[in-house]
Description:
By secondary structure, this protein is α/β, with parallel strands linked by helices. The chain has helices at 14-26, 33-46, 58-68, 86-93, 112-118, 138-148, 200-209, 218-222, 244-255, 257-274, 313-325, 341-347, 355-363, 375-389; strands at 51-55, 76-80, 97-101, 123-126, 151-155, 163-164, 167-168, 176-180, 193-197, 280-281, 304-308, 364-367. It is globular, with a radius of gyration of 21 Å.
Amino acid sequence: xxxxxPFALPDIGDEEIEAVxxxxxxxxxxxxPNAREFEIEFARYLGGDVEAVAVNSATAGLHLALEAxxxxxxxxxxxxxxxxxxxxxxxxxxxxxxVLVDIDPETLCISPAAIERAITPKTRAxxxxxxxxxxxxxDSILAIARKHNLRxxxxxxxxxxxxxxxxxxxxxxxxxxxxxxxATKTLATGEGGMVITRDPALAKRCRVMRLHxxxxxxxxxxxxxxxxxxxxxxAPGFKYNLxxxxxxxxxxxxxxxxxxxxxxxxxADAYNTAFADLPLTLPPRPGNADMPHAAxxxxxxxxYVVRLHGQDPARRDQFIANMAERGIGCSVxxxxxxxxxxxxxxxxLTPEMYPQSQAAFNSMVSLPIYSKMSDADVARVIExxxxxxx
Length: 390
């Protein structure tokens, strides 16, 4: 009996375990020296004179980012329907309204044309989502933002180490970028995330608000040679700081990032070759015809999403069930927000309003792709997909 191949699995080795153990033995369990070094190393990795603020999830980071730019009651934030709910829900935390728009049928990322159609006098920000590890058309999105005096916060939960036109996501002209280090991501700390910005004022606001609105981090207060117990609450903040144990793991993962991404790319290339003649649409990738990306741009390959021909959800569901019977886990990314009861009912959304997202959802399947997959695992996935679709 072959072992089950899960849809996703973190790539954690002895070095990560040793780093976490060392952090625990140091006595720093909450935010401390490892979190500080992780921020420094992450900013240095991205380059471009950015600042990095470690947080306990990308959801927290998106919330902090919107709060930092002043989004609040009566404001609107444009984001795709084809995303995880966190991208939209953070606007509701602040009393603002997310405005959900459709995706580009080729890239599966937010449609710049749909963004422009959705702008109103209430619009304050755009949150593009780099879907699956492929960059959005950031030139078009940033041009729209400049034209309408809007802020841009990139949801880069899938996008490490993605590039756009040769530049790393996180170093573009957006106001802030937010990464995720959830267990399935290309860099995993279990839970965690990072907020990136070039604006010192935005970075300072995120740092203050991530820990109850206190004007000094605990690390600063508890490591000074001089008595430094005094602090001030300058705003009603949140509890969004990253523990040192998670940061220690993240520092090791960051050093291994390109090794892990290279393995994901090798798997994606094997899939692309094996599935070229099957009745499905392969994932979009840099270098494809009609794609705005530079052919040399990096795809993070957080997800490998194929679309079965025919747009028949029942056939898609049966395919996933058949793969499970063969011991292979698959998933669907995502059930679009316009189909989710809260968003559907609050805003009166229908599938007809999002034809591209709906069509993609009806036929899409996420196949296993993670850097711990063995060649034998990859071969089993290929064999099973071919057997079911040939």
